[in-house]
Amino acid sequence: MTHSNQAPIGLAVKLPFATPEEFLAKYGANLTRGGIYLRSRTVKPPGTPITLDLKLSTGARLIYASAVVHFVTGQQGQGVSGMGLRFLTLDPETKRFLDTALAPLPHAQSAEPLLPQGVGPADYAVPPQPTASAPPVVPPVAPAAPEPSAAPSSPTALAPAATPMVPTAPAFEPLKEEPKREGPIIGIDLGTTNSCSGYVRNGKPEVLHSREGHNTVPSILALNTRGKMVVGHPAKGQMLTNPRQTVYGAKRLVGRAYDSPIVQHIKDRFHYEIAPGDSGEAAVKLGNRIFSLQQISALILREVRELAQNQLQQPVSRAVITVPAYYNDNQRQAVREAGQLAGLYVERILNEPTAAALAYGYGRKLNQRILVYDLGGGTFDASVLELNDTVYEVVSTGGDTFLGGIDFDNAIVEHLLEEFQKQTGKAFQGDRVAMQRIHDAAERAKCALSERSDMRVHVAFVTMIDNKPYDLDVTLTRKKLIALTERLVDRTIEVCDEVLKAKGLAPKDVQEVVLVGGQSRFPLVHEKITKFFGKPPTKNVHPDEAVALGAALLAHSLGQVEGVTLIDVLPMAIGVGLPGGRFKPVLERNAALPASKTYTLSTSRDNQAELEVSIFQGDSERAGENEYLGTLKLAGLPRRSRGEVQVTITFEVSNESLLKVTARESSTGREVSSTFTTRDTPEAVKARLAQENPTEPPAPASQAPAPAAAAMPPPLPAKMAGVVGWLKGLFGRR
Ligand code: ADP
Ligand code: MG
Which one is the CATH code of 574-732: 3.90.1150.10, 2.160.20.10, 3.40.1010.10, 2.60.34.10? Predict the structure, then answer.
């Protein structure tokens, strides 16, 4: 399970004090406007939502609030055990009490719970794996007996200075040495939502567990309020209280320009700050520092590597890392760099669907056509593979990069807010924290509904309207969930259909359907798959683990004589931009690799001496909607009448899966020089393309094979090499 399924917890504490004054005298140091520190032998993981009900010994209510565990102390055997709870919503009485009682206490103005003196350092360690269903109400935690040292009476001496809201982020520390190409090779699924790693031990692939005992590590990195970087579950834990400094879903930004349409489109959906990096690439601002996506991914990979080292009891410096099939070269390169920064030599970059297929078929000598259906947190991919003994060939691939678990969550949230309005007669008004809590609850309910048929969604104290606190309390049934999200599942089936049709295949031509990705656990997915393909999906692979285990298996096979052979297709067309902003594919999507195609263009004016070609990758008919790869500038063309001078550009994805681009001036056999313009931003190129007179005849494109080399002048020399170097390896490195 990737989720702890924690239910909001009611925490009722009866204090051994009869009046607020007595309480403040003893425990004033533990209280701020923003939260309270409670000593307690049992603590809950950071991020756990809590409804706190603190009563005086008379039974009178002192504090009634919804809160969340902000930090825990004493879990690593140092100092007093307890937890800092951050208030999310206060009832009006509590607010009045805090306003009056805390006004004179300087330390208490903080918006967060503080560490009182003498309890020892806070640590964010999450306790051992929580049981699948946490009890809804924990027994009251009696405050620890007052200790003289813990409750000094002078308020100024009580607490450390208030923690700044945005601490300084530690700089990214590069590793001192290059990763060594020796020792075990692990497989890593660096997921958008969750990462997982595996290793083949004694011929058996197994998954390496997170510190908390989960099979996956949330791909989340956070700067905590004490200026420390935390990764995985502890980082997920602070998402509620510190969304601005919590980085999730970063994979969607990897290898993309800040200005690219995708980044501009998704940037406002993230609570953390996305900023341009040094070379205009999308980067992340944490604290006051900019981190590249490679660094962010590297910090997640470092955690994975450390887990592996702990479990394998030896240094780990090599890995096979998986990427989505549709990743372009920039993105694959970025993942390689991230690996390197994490101290890992990346032996192979492997496509996720191929990895899943390996987990399914490795060592079984299968002769089958399968479809890998991967519905993860943010994206959906479908790939058809043909397995022939040790040969794994991807024959068709496709997907929707904006369809995943998060869309199911959003549909539920929308419904919950509607229900709230129906119940209360008031439109929901809540801040970011409230929305995040509802999202959390929606996701938990969604996961629970994969196992059961109804689930109460209760978010206590979610908002205040007209000074009155409100809970969100809705029971969601699986039936309702299906009604809300059926269209999303239908969309995935449509994509499966498209991916099959692209190769002239029908559902019955598929022998097995392999489901991966957490959201594929939704029973409606099984139902629709079974209906569409006429058979249920295979139960042989684990949806969370398959990709990592497949990577581990490939890693294992690298050292063997009889390894596996992986054959791939081009995931997205590669081609050129035409006047009017159109896109002309040269190498089509799903072209089997290796592949080679030429594109011929000719001058459109008399005496034209220069030609420019902009190269894009993607499946849109509009160049501007595709990924910009670069521009070739061909200068020094012979001056002739329009159309007489022709240049042939060859796009070639070679045997070693490296893309080479070569250009020949074919009409006269004369050499032309070319430069690769790097000064233009993708946006400038796109704008220029869009402006160019669309009525001008487009450069004729030819699919004809390049004329025999002997009859032709040599490929463009020297300056062209830069382009080749830059473009090389596009889609390669399998
Ligand atoms: P990624 O490949 O993006 O890292 P995962 O494969 O880990 O993602 O899938 C994460 C998604 O799966 C999340 O949206 C999560 O809510 C969803 N998910 C996890 N477990 C379940 C479940 N039992 N039922 C339905 N959805 C689930
Ligand atoms: Mg995945």
Answer: 2.60.34.10
